[in-house]
Amino acid sequence: MTFSDLGIAPTILRALEAAGYQNPTSVQAEAVPAAIAGRDLLVSAQTGSGKTAAFLLPALTKLSERSTLRGNGPRVLVLCPTRELAQQVEKNALEYGKDLRWMKTACLVGGSSFGYQIRALSRPIDLVVATPGRLMDHMRSGRIDFSRLEMLVLDEADRMLDMGFIDDIEAIVKATPETRQTVLFSATLDGIVGRMAEKMTRDPQRIEIARSESSGGTIEEHLLYADDLNHKHRLLDHILKESGFDQCVIFSATKAYSEELADKLSDQGYSAACLHGDMPQSWRNRTLNDLRRGRIKVLVATDVAARGIDVPTITHVVNFDLPKQAEDYVHRIGRTGRAGRDGTAITLAEAKEFHKVRRIEQYLKRQITEGVIEGMEPTRRPPKGPRRTGGKSGGYGDRRHGSGNGNGNSRGGYGNNRREGGYQGQRREGGGYQGNRGPRNSAQ
Fold first, then answer.
1. Which of 82, 99, 125, 429 is 20 to 30 Å from 210 by CA-CA measure?
2. What is the pLDDT of residue 261?
3. Distance CA 8, CA 175 (A)
4. What count of Cα atoms within 13 Å lies in the side-chain half-sphere of residue 259?
């Protein structure tokens, strides 16, 4: 099957071909024709499945035909849980819809210019991508009109509910026309997500994509046990030195430690930066742009801040801290293995955290291959049980094609620059954002 078989508008097809897209993923093949036909959809698909295109391609096909309705309000509204994801969705929409010369978009998120958003909403607009909180700010001020709305998309609905947006979502849905088409994407369609979906959809078609079909490329997963924090740092140092990574995302459980770890890696010579929710939006945007341009090789991030990152050159993900929720593991490792490329995900855990690892494996319905690095074996082991082991290893995911420090060795991403491009807040004397101490050898 090709994209031309899905009923997508010719102008959108040309943009897809120019971008190098050839064949639809499973979720795209099922969701796009149904959405173009006007069906309400409930779609269960994981990060990396191509779900963004699965709702944008029908939306843009709809926008390829000019509306006869008068007014300034959007014809398509996409709700996302985080700023970064919303910005990525708008970026993809502009890429796929580049031949729709008349199309006007707006990204309504916190931390960016309120004045710009007000000006954008004062003119006729076709597509709005927003976080629920900022959209509610504009709704309370009477700045947005939904009378022309034809399609409502909820992306990562489960995450929006986890973040406490249910009241905002219900208020937004209530303000939209009953004649709208509703498309909901979520990692799961059970529980509160399912109950909410029933209220806002009409005879929806359910599409569930198996987790094994959700990844763009093959993600090789490894589990390494550590005795303590110092042992974790030794393992991380070995991984970064020996894996030959192109770019790596390291997940930390806290905002404060993401800064501390990024500083530590910068002091070791890596081009590293942190990304978390307390950073000013301008710094977050700059960090993500530098990551996309390859100026940042190692990004230390928290879960919420990293959602929406779509950089195909990320070859490795390291879970320095375990995620609080099992489903976040899937979203984390989905930062690699994108655009059909292979990736490597390495999880570090202490023996006392084995029950958290088991919960993740129960959610995945499979085990993560456990291994050790020779000379760095843990002295404490989790309770024995049937597991797959990967034996000893001197490194994971060796991809020495073009990565490295330019001297022909295998220290992927290692260089003499300190942390480039990204937030340069103060060193930790307490938790969270500590203010701007100015760029430190930042890339221009």
1. 82
2. 96
3. 29
4. 22
Give the rounded distance of the alpha carbon of 148 from its chain centre.
30
Residues of the chain with CATH 3.40.50.300: 3-211, 215-393
The top-scoring range by mean pLDDT among 198-212, 405-419, 420-434 is 198-212
How many other C-beta atoms lie within 10 A of the C-beta of residue 438? 8
* Dist. CA 371–CA 353, nearest whole Å: 16
Tokens matching residue 149: 């709305």
pLDDT, residue 387, reads: 54
HSE, CB side, 13 Å, CA atoms: give it for residue 88. 23
Give the tokens for residue 141.
Answer: 């001020």
Residue 372 CA, distance from chain mean position = 29
- The encoded tokens of residue 424 equal 């340069």
CB-side neighbour CA atoms (13 Å) of 284: 26
**Nearest Cα to Cα of residue 374 among 357, 355, 394, 389:** 394
Rounded to whole angstroms, what are the CA distances from 363 to 132, 276, 357, 360, 379? 28, 26, 10, 5, 28
C-alpha distance from residue 104 to each of 64, 121, 281, 407 (Å): 12, 10, 23, 47
Q: How many Å apart are CA 230 and CA 344, to the nearest integer?
A: 23
Instruction: Check: CB of residue 236 under 8 Å from CB of residue 320.
Output: yes
In Å, how far from its chain's centre is CA 398?
24
Print the SS3 string covering 320-335: CCCCCCHHHHHHHHCC
Task: Residue 305: name the closest of 246, 254, 240 by CA.
Answer: 254
- The dihedral of CA 173, 108, 104, 10: what is its sign? negative
Q: Tokens 């707006």 identify what position?
A: 106
215-393 maps to which CATH number?
3.40.50.300
Burial class (CB in 10 A: 0-12, 13-18, 19+), 102: exposed
- Helix (H/G/I), strand (E/B), else coil: 274: strand
The amino acid at residue 309 is: I
The CATH architecture to which 3-211 belongs is 3-Layer(aba) Sandwich (3.40)
